[in-house]
């Protein structure tokens, strides 16, 4: 049985390097040059995820405009919403709008109730994203394409269909990146047997 884990883990601040809030997909068709074939989602699910993000983003802009700063990231129909809202009512409205989008199976509402982040804060998040991505790529025991990384206000959110071993390893890597304040695990945990089944066989 698949399970989703949302684990909040405090990360040790190592250096002064900071990073960014835009979503970063390591592998897959949304961002970067990795082919669809290496993604652990089906091509149909990848398309649904992109559609969910577009529709949810449009609904939020239409209803709330610049009152909020929201990033919507969908992986395997599970939607992670991050960013900032000035009050709990707007935060709840964002979740309701996203949950109402067709094909959404679960919403993880990690929106902070605070002032909207500054441009410098968002730029810092982008730097952190790049560093997390680089570290995952350098890890020889991981398939970096399996991870979907989002950074918001120095907090790293990691999504993906991964085994417990892969989840723990990626979390440890992200914690060691300079500027990371916290790592939030948002994985769909699969068994090693499931991983073997969905991994393309080498010719």
TrEMBL record:
InterPro entries the record matches: BON_dom, Lipoprotein_DolP, Transpt-assoc_nodulatn_dom_bac
Pfam families of this UniProt entry?
BON
Does the keyword Signal belong to this entry? yes
Keyword annotations from UniProtKB, A to Z: Signal
- Signal peptide span: 1-20
Entry keyword annotation includes Signal: yes
Among PANTHER family, the record links this protein to: BON DOMAIN-CONTAINING PROTEIN, OUTER MEMBRANE LIPOPROTEIN DOLP
| Protein name according to UniProt | Transporter
Tell me the organism. Answer: Roseateles puraquae
